Amino acid sequence: MDRFYFDHNASTPVSPEVLEALTPALREVYGNASSIHHPGQMAKQRLEAARGQVAQLIHAQPREIVFLSGGTEADNLALFGAVRYHPRERKHVVTTAIEHPAVLAACAQLEREGVSVTRVGVSSDGLVSPGDIRRALRPETVLVSVMHANNELGTVQPLAEIGRIAREAGVLFHSDGVQAVGKLPVDVQALGVDLYSLTGHKIYAPKGAGALYVRQGTRLGAIQFGGHHERDRRPGTENVPGAVGLGAAAQWLSDNLDAETARLRVLRDRLEAGLLQRVPSAVVNCSNAPRTPNTSNVRFEGCDGEALVIALDLRGFAVSSGAACSSGAVEPSHVLTAIGLPPQRARASLRFSLGRSNDAAQVDALIEAVASVASPHAR
Fold this sequence. Notes:
Elements: E1 4-5, H1 16-28, H2 38-58, E2 65-68, H3 71-83, E3 92-96, H4 101-112, E4 116-120, H5 130-136, E5 141-145, H6 159-169, E6 172-176, H7 188-191, E7 195-199, E8 210-214, H8 229-232, H9 240-278, E9 282-284, E10 295-300, H10 305-314, E11 317-318, H11 334-338, H12 343-347, E12 349-353, H13 360-374
Parallel strand pairs: 1-11, 3-4, 3-5, 5-6, 6-7
Antiparallel strand pairs: 2-8, 7-8, 9-10, 10-12
């Protein structure tokens, strides 16, 4: 049976370009990048070249890139490193109700440490109002954290406007960009962010490699302790092959992003049009909002999302009923309930996220498969 993958927001396969860069990095670059001998300096050179490739993709300076294990660690370093080390005695953080658990759980821990947290709601289109962010600010606010693109809906937040509000208030601004990098042009200067998280396994690089952009001059304390790696921000011997893979993925995106996102947008629109035509109960969630070009969240009234995922998997199609980190959760998606969907409708929603391996023929096959399991006669 042919298998087709439509869950790229959860993870992506390693691309040919990344694999080509990884192989010599694993075979030949075995030195410790902190060593002064030749093998160590070879590793250091590869590490810094990758740092430059990642910086180029998001319009940063190489010295502003900190290599980490992925998006969760990047979010945790941003929040804990900024808030715990802020000199203000009373501290307040503003975030949103639709953040990834890496941010929401970190905020919950900060609350246990005595930090006050405000979680701003979103509209029915899944968008955060900059005005609501402004109204949530207090004299003791030290950080605003708003994701760039939502992992379930694909909705893109007005970061540049929020960045201006944070800057005017003298408040640090972090964004979880894990689902935006590789799907949108990212310019950290234009967005006004001080901290920006990204990860490799969403952009065809290996799992276990990610990065945090830290604007030069931003005060950020370490949350792990050991050596002086990554400018004292992340101790431990660097994962050079992982960084090389992340750098290769970033380079491919720097060269091909516009063409690939245009291709994915056509496929996404084709998928939505086909589903709306073939399945009477289908409704595209947040269809009127700006969204990443590869992501579609569709609810099928009267259906159970988990059952649809299983039925489609049996037919060879990998899709999702929500975030991969919440797979198997009993509660409905916190993102879908935040946009006002009652639990039953939230549980009836599927996420389709397209990527480099998908083409029009696969999209058409997916439409047929969904129609066969979600139409009234199929139930």
